[in-house]
Write a structure and sequence with these properties.
By secondary structure, this protein is α/β, with parallel strands linked by helices. The protein is built from six helices and nine strands, in the order E-H-E-E-E-H-E-H-E-H-E-H-E-E-H.
């Protein structure tokens, strides 16, 4: 799989893509992530990538030409399944979307900055828009890192135990059950006896009950999808 991330501030993505599961997946050759500086196609001697809004609104807008040229250059090299714009008014990222995108071969994540991007890019080049929440950030770099992480961890081989992702919260529209590790007792706080029983059937039943109870308490809206 290949993920190309387009940004005017590539430095913001250095750390999130270099460590932990994503970093290890890159080193294993399971995914290729390339970060591209849109300023490479900026205009004039100062590589300008933004300009004032038509209509007089406050804030600067990323210009159509640099973004268009970079996307066209990438498209000339390979076919992309999705060109995704990270936008606060896009569809809300979910585990289902992450699952879907993890099956793609090539995707572009376009990061807005300043006031956003010239809308013509969204109209004519972008195939999908994704948001990580109903709030506004300084740019799309952090959301792009979130999307990349949510995708990469699902690629076979990215996790040491591939079954771990199957028990994550939201995979079955339920929150995950509580998890514990050694010691079995600390400061008077005990691990539930069933987890020490060695009985897989009882443990699985307990986990299912706990997942349902936690979802009812913390995210009852998820249950409406299934009930």
């Amino acid at each position: 799989m290949r993920i190309d991330i387009l940004t005017v501030v590539p430095e913001l993505l250095d750390s999130p893509l270099s460590h932990s599961i994503v970093g290890r997946a890159i080193k294993k050759g399971l995914v290729e992530i390339q970060v591209h500086n849109i300023r490479k196609y900026g205009l004039g001697p100062h590589r300008q990538v933004d300009d004032y809004c038509y209509g007089g609104d406050a804030g600067m807008v990323m210009m159509v030409e640099p973004v268009f040229k970079m996307i066209e250059k990438l498209k000339s090299e390979r076919n992309y399944d999705e060109i995704i714009y990270m936008s606060p008014d896009g569809e809300l990222l979910s585990q289902g979307i992450a699952n879907e995108l993890s099956l793609k071969e090539n995707i572009i994540l376009l990061c807005g900055h300043y006031k956003g991007i010239d809308h013509r890019i969204r109209e004519h080049l972008v195939t999908r828009e994704i948001s990580i929440g109903d709030y506004v950030l300084s740019g799309g770099e952090i959301p792009a890192a979130v999307v990349a992480d949510s995708i990469v961890r699902l690629i076979p081989g990215a996790l040491t135990d591939e079954t771990s992702a199957l028990s994550d919260s939201f995979q079955d529209d339920l929150l995950s059950p509580p998890v514990y590790t050694r010691p079995a007792e600390y400061n008077g706080w005990k691990v539930p006896d069933v987890l020490l029983s060695g009985n897989p059937k009882l443990i699985r039943e307990w986990q299912e009950e706990q997942a349902l109870e936690r979802t009812k308490e913390l995210r009852p809206n998820l249950l409406s999808k299934n009930f």
